[in-house]
Amino acid sequence: PASPTLAVIGGDGIGPEVTAEAVKVLRAVCGDDAFSFVDYDLGAERWKRTGEVLPDSVLAELAQADAVLFGAVGAAPGDKSMPSGILERGLILKIRFAFDHYVNLRPSRLYAGVPTPLAESVTSRGEVDFVVVREGTEGLYCGNGGVVRPGTVHEIATEVSVNTAHGVERVVRDAFERATRRRQKVTLVHKHNVLVNAGQLWNRVFEQVAAEYPQVQTDYLHVDAATIFLATDPARFDVVVTDNLFGDILTDLAAAVTGGIGLAASGNINPTREYPSMFEPVHGSAPDIAGQQVADPTAAILSAALLLDHLGRPEEAARVTAAVTEDIESRTGQRRTSEVGDAIATRVS
Ligand code: IPM
Ligand code: MN
Question: Which end of the chain is more exposed for a tag (fewer CB within 10 A), N or C?
Fold first, then answer.
């Protein structure tokens, strides 16, 4: 059979640099012929050149791929020609919604020797190793809402969070399934004391699904309290399940306490495999350091490990993760982006 196709969207800024290292590691661990890589030119630069964000024909091609490897997109912060939201809504979220990426998987692990803002009294409480299962297709990200009397002192702007029983159930179930393969604990994060409509739905579904997994321990935290525990006792978390926006915010904090955004990987997963899943570092395009080969490609490489897992290559995924762990634990001075990729590629081959 033909080798699986990986669509590669390097994007802007450091995106192409870190993605190139992820491709390098995939070739090293699976062999040069294991995948056909197809590059797609998308992002701020494409938009500026052509006015196109994601043409339907490109979306249709991406749908034929076995998985998508995504770098980062975005123009420089001072660049006023690129309005906020164009790429976010038109590219990243468009793909997540079109390909029904209802599990936005974001693992966090504190590797030995990695600088962390966490106090010694916190890290000594236990291993920090958890995954956030962030819902990826609903909530406040749907773009429901609108503006009444725009630009006036009576302007009313609304954003409506959409939560369906179907959408909540499938992501909560995924979290419980993951917990059975991990340390058997799921924490629901929400804010049901204030967001009572959605909160009740999440609570009810969570309890119903939990009843099917008696061996899995459950916990609930309001999102504000969850941020406290991420800073004071992150070892208490195993699998965290939450909605789209809470998950967005929590996973930046999770990255910050586990060595920073340079290490944080993610998978936008369609567990039914009806559509290709997309794997991307949590970080952005970092235009300030683009093109200098100073970005850390580790998050992109760890995202490639999630891709391998998803494509049914757990053994190769584990080799990449192990190589990254060794690489992180043996870090000394500054290395160039390609040197980090080379070092990890050497360890896996
Ligand atoms: C992320 C990003 C995106 C999100 C943006 C760029 C749309 O912050 O992947 O976490 O909010 O999901
Ligand atoms: Mn984010």
Answer: N
- H or E segment and range at residue 210: helix 196-211
Please tell me what DSSP assigns to residue 275: S
CATH superfamily, with its number, for domain 1-101+264-349: Isopropylmalate Dehydrogenase (3.40.718.10)
Please enumerate in sequence order all residues whose Cβ is within 8 A of that of 156, keeping only pairs 6 or more positions apart, or say none: 147, 148, 149
ipTM: 0.99
- Tens of pLDDT, residue by residue over 282-323, are 999 999 999 999 999 999 999 999 999 999 999 999 999 999
Query: What length does the chain have?
Result: 349
Which of the ligands is closest to the CA of residue 134? Answer: 1
> In 3D, which of 17, 109, 29 has the Cα closest to residue 311?
29
User: CATH number of the domain at 116-258, out of 3.40.718.10, 3.30.2350.10, 2.60.120.10, 3.40.50.150?
Assistant: 3.40.718.10
- For 42-83, what is each residue's pLDDT tens digit? 999 999 999 999 999 999 999 999 999 999 999 988 888 888
Q: What is the pTM of this model?
A: 0.96
Which atom number of ligand 1 is nearest to the Cα of residue 244? 12
Q: Which residue's CA is the closest to the ligand 1 atom numbered 7? A: 88
CB atoms within 10 A of CB 250: 22
191 counts as catalytic? yes
